[in-house]
Write a structure and sequence with these properties.
Structural class: alpha/beta
Order of helices and strands: EEEHEHEHHEHHEHEH
Bound molecules: iron/sulfur cluster
Shape: globular
Radius of gyration: 18 Å
Number of strands: 8
CATH class: Alpha Beta
Helix content: 25-40%
Strand content: 15-25%
Number of domains: 1
CATH architecture: Alpha-Beta Barrel
CATH superfamily: Aldolase class I
């Protein structure tokens, strides 16, 4: 398998085949995140996709396994247009016609660029279980962290997914509001979850990585 850099997937997808189709993140600006700082967002070339798929097909065939679910990596595959996503899914189905569900990370901001027709088409292609970094229910924190969306937008886009019938799961960061705001942040997160109605809520605690913009904000006394 040819892959680029570190790859990530939600813990609940531990048994799903993770397939890198687009490296990096188009946004790459969240202050707490260093996952893709070393990558510029780009599609993986088709010959590499085909070679990796052929290798996996041979492996699955050897053990009589079926590939019915796949997680598309890296962190921002859903930023691709519905046409590009359809091409990638069709390519995977050339090798794995039994494929039923295609899952990936998604961002509120890239949902805005998809029409309801796009979402319905993707649902029909098998796209489901989008893992969305809603992160926090407080707008000032989302803005401080450069998240690229606010809670109103989160609710609007989650509502569109719920109407179309694409399951989505909420990634939330405990501690993102900083010291002294735990209760306020917890209540805001609860209000957000009640409105967006995700399938699963996945919690993580805020980590401060040395090479993150957040570390610099802490050094500058802008965040505790
Ligand atoms: S948290 Fe998500 S959207 Fe933000 S920079 Fe990291 S991968 Fe990109």
């Amino acid at each position: 398998m040819q892959t680029e850099g570190t790859m990530y997937r939600p813990p609940v997808e531990a048994n799903t085949f993770v397939f890198q189709v687009a490296a990096g993140c188009t946004h790459n600006k969240c202050k707490f995140c260093t996952m893709f700082r070393d990558k510029k967002f780009h599609l993986i070339k088709e010959d590499v996709l085909r070679s990796n798929l052929a290798e996996v097909k041979e492996y699955y065939g050897r053990y009589g396994l079926k590939l019915e679910r796949i997680f598309l990596d890296d962190g921002d595959v859903f930023s691709l247009s519905a046409d590009k996503l359809e091409n990638i899914i069709n390519l995977i189905r050339e090798y794995f016609p039994e494929l039923k569900e295609i899952t990936m990370y998604a961002a509120v901001r890239n949902l805005k660029h998809k029409s309801n027709e796009d979402l319905l088409r993707l649902k029909d292609l098998g796209v489901n279980d989008l893992y969305i970094g809603y992160e926090c229910g407080l707008d000032d924190c989302l803005m401080f962290m450069n998240k690229g969306h606010n809670t109103e937008e989160s609710i609007r886009q989650a509502d569109r997914l719920n109407q179309v019938g694409i399951r989505h799961h909420a990634l939330l960061i405990i501690g993102m509001a900083g010291k002294g705001r735990a209760e306020e942040s917890g209540m805001a997160a609860a209000r957000l979850v009640n409105k967006i109605k995700p399938g699963i809520v996945l919690l993580t605690t805020l980590s401060v990585f040395d090479d993150s913009d957040l570390k610099q904000e802490i050094i500058n006394n802008n965040f505790t």
